[in-house]
Amino acid sequence: MTALLALATSALWGFADFGGGLLTRRIPALTVVVVSQTLAVVVLGALVLATGGPREADGALWYAVAAGVVGPVAMLAFYRALALGPMGVVSPLGSVGVAVPVGIGLLLGERPGLLQCAGIGVAVAGVLLAGGPQLRGAPVQRQAIGLTLLAAVGFGAVMALIAEASSTLTGLFLALFVQRITNVATGGAALWLTVRRGAPALPEDGGWTAIRGSLGALAFVGLADVAANGTYALAAQRGPVTVAAVLASLYPVVTALAARGVLGERLKWVQTAGAGLALLGTVLLATG
């Protein structure tokens, strides 16, 4: 069950990243984050009320608050690093944040078997290669590397924090709701600051009309991200965190394959090899 939930997490995050990437081609990235998360808050709020979530409130919700603060900061650092580029280096490096939950699992006494250790190594290598790292071209700025590593640590921290936010399904809905409210507050503050500095909040082509026309896609991105956090939390609670975290971090492979299938983007040989290694690592982790 842990493997299936973690793989579902990868699929959801991969498609959410793909959808978000398409949206940011015509809508400012911060606006995509804030609007998509606001739509997710509405749906989660209804779920929390329907399931009696407020009764599950306890001290563990502070983990959700922390995840809600760290997440937007990590995303902003990642977007900034992508802008500095090259993307072929930045994108796969962002997935090394898996070291955070894996390290925590090891510190808590988890000891993967031999096959699982091999699967972790193979899967991580596959994820890095699937991003299509550029070995030639423009030099990578130190600032881009620093921002990417900051984002990676942030992404890994969110995985670790949300896994601790609740131990029940009803409580998980509440934790995700609190996390998203914090996301919206943090992202909204950042958006307000950027607008004050002169950056646009709305698309130059279409304005509010473009936002309204994209509400379905924005809702998908927000809800897919929420669902991924939920399935990861369940995976980490039901099995070894070291296994759940690595399998959940295969989302760059999903994003690359989605770009191939929908946009017709051709995969480099290194990306194809990376996807194959990621699948091999998945088999080793699931059978180890």
Automatic annotation (TrEMBL):
The keyword Calcium does not apply. It comes from the Bacteria. InterPro entries: EamA_dom, EmrE-like. Residues 3-130, 145-286 form the EamA domain. The chain crosses the membrane at residues 26-49, 61-82, 88-107, 114-132, 144-163, 172-195, 215-234, 241-263. It holds the Pfam family EamA. This is DMT family transporter. It comes from Streptomyces physcomitrii. The lineage of its organism: Bacteria, Bacillati, Actinomycetota, Actinomycetes, Kitasatosporales.
